Amino acid sequence: MRYSYKGVPTCKTPFDLALYQMLLWQQKPRTLIEIGSKWGGSALWFADVLRSFGVDSEIHSVDITPPSISVPGVTFHRGDGRDLATTLPANLMESLPRPIMVVEDADHHCETVLAVLRFFDHWLATGEYIVVEDGIVDDLYDAQYVAKLMGGPRRAIELFLRDRGQHYEIDTSLCDYFGTNVTWNVNDVKYAAMPHHIDFFDWCWVAGLTSVAGLLPITIGQMTAGGALVALLLYVAVRRCRYFGNTAPLVMVLLLFPLVTTQTVSKPWLWALPFLFTFVGGVFADALETRQRKLFLGLSGAILLTQAMLCLALLPEIAR
After folding, report:
1. In terms of Cα–Cα distance, which of 101, 291, 302 is closest to 210?
2. How distant is the alpha carbon of residue 207 from its chain centre?
3. Is the pTM above the cut of 0.90?
4. Where are the domains of the chain?
5. Which of 16, 82, 118, 179 is 20 to 30 A from 130 (CA-CA)?
6. How far apart are the first and last CA of the chain?
7. Diameter of the chain by CA atoms?
8. Where are the alpha helices (DSSP H) in the chain?
């Protein structure tokens, strides 16, 4: 990578520079945090682009060995991606103007990337992005080098989403903008933080990470948990509910919900939802034809009323 910006080495591909400009214009972050400064070229470029967009922003760039250059609007911090709580303490994070955008571009070791993702998982808000760079390292280098990185960024993202995947979704709108994975951040992750938006852009350099702010698991979970439990109890207790039309979707739900994918970042629980809704709807329809239809209608109304109250209680949080 011989590209430089204003005479400062800047390890970015032309595709990723274009994609970054699109994302910066879309997000207009008031704070940009970069993990991995190297020579400082990226921080310099980010600062100039945001200034040209008329965004009043501040940039914090962290590196074990900060560069010696001075850039207006950029603060270089000495710190370790595996111990960001020391470099970016709570009082600093709480004072940063929103929205925040994070760029993870440190040593590309799985443990480092995973530590960065877990640290910002606590701080990112709905719609904010974290970009994980260099997901392509395991395609560019031999197995021995990748083994030293313990799988690199893509492995870190896979492990992170295994625990927090229900709060994040992958955004392919940038990863595949110039064609499938035409970037240095291939298939790493696609959206930014949710309760944060975590978009991992399938770029070769930039796995865009955007979090879906806990709203998806909250709404879907609360909307279906009560109904699914009642439907399951009815299925067991009421003989007329136990026939093929209800049993088949229930079996599919039980097969898909615990499924874990390894070669691709996905959410098998989403695949199970249509079957779950089919099961719940079928059992409820059968229950309405029993002698206890009034009791059933009362229970259903209580569930819907509870859900409505929960949604109303969430409105202030969503508004923020």
Report:
1. 101
2. 10
3. no
4. 4-213, 216-319
5. 179
6. 41
7. 81
8. 14-27, 41-52, 84-87, 90-95, 110-121, 137-140, 143-148, 152-164, 172-175, 215-237, 244-256, 268-287, 293-319
Tens digits of residue pLDDT in 34-62: 999 999 999 999 999 999 999 999 999 99
CA atoms within 13 A on the CB side of 14: 1
The residue type found at 275 is: F
Distances 245 to 117, 253, 269, 282 between C-alpha atoms, Å: 43, 13, 21, 7
Rounded distance between C-alpha atoms, residue 229 and residue 280, angstroms: 9
Structure tokens at 182: 């035409």
Extract the tokens encoding 136.
């392509």
- H/E run at residue 262: none
Separation of alpha carbons 96 and 102, rounded Å: 12
Burial call 77-106: b when 16+ CB within 10 Å, e when fewer: bebbbbebeebbeeeebeebeebbbbbbbb
Query: What is the SS3 assignment for 154?
Result: helix
* 180-209 pLDDT tens trace: 655 544 444 334 444 344 444 433 333 333
Integer Cα distance of 164 and 202 in angstroms: 18
